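Schema walk-through. Below, the input block comes first and the output block second. Nothing else is stored per chain. Lengths vary across the set, and this one has 329 residues.
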Amino acid sequence: MLELESLVLKPGARPISHRFPAGRISVVLGRNRSGKTALTRVIAGLDEPVSGDVRLNGESLASASPGIRSVSLVYQTFVNYPGWTVAGNLGSPLVAARWDRERIRIRVREIAGKLGLADLLDRYPDALSGGQQQRVAIGRALAKGADVLVMDEPLVNLDYKLRESLQLELKSLLHELGVTVIYTTTDPRDAFALGDALVLLAEHTLLQSGTPLAVYDRPASPAAAHLMSDPQANQVPGDPPALVRPEHLYLKPHAADDASFSVEVLGTETNGSETFLHCRPEPVEAHADHWVAHLSGLVDLPAGGRVTLYAPAGSLLTFEEQREAPALG
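--- output ---
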């Protein structure tokens, strides 16, 4: 288990205390510059925190250099050695650790088999696809058998289809390895696709943690609700104010007690299977300027027209205490 004890990542930020359980994938979700990369670098020992401690299995890592920490780090860029084969890249941390040649060969073939690289061991990185290169980078991090695997947006540079297929493979592989996994991302979909647990970060501060479904269903603040919505939630006026997520808006009512909103159509984006309706609630002065409704199917509505959107009454998010929360910037 990896523990953060009153960890301050940036001057003025609130301390973070949190436990990342062994054998689980913990997704750390936040916007750019929210503190995700700062957190990964502190855990890996590449940077020092302002204050606080990182503990692994009860032992402080404060005096442990990056090289001796049982932590492997995978970056979002493909960091592979171009002059070495796949086998050479996978075995490089083991060579540095002075493993004998036969032991390295066995470990490299084991990792290559799990990552679908067994037939590519003699190839060089420039002969690999983007997905294969990223698998090599992940495999090199896994090779030394660290207790903690930190992945800093490792799939962000891949196309959508490859990213989707690798997510399924990664989840199965990481659970099989049984290590503590910390996976950072800006995309809330990753939380549901990969995460056993979820941590929300904003301005180097922990907003909320829990299972992805619990955080989605019961966000602790408007900032947390926006982080778990893509596009972000729409502002509904009232006392107290409320939010409605784009995916909870429909063109037809589902029940008698549905909330209804008259909107002016600004435009639509569609890929055939879903449509994003950009609109402006009426009256304009009482609402946010711009809403987005995430609708299923192909919807063709002319700009300038007016429609009514509906949302189930139980889907409106209200917050009893409107505490000042970190910006999502």
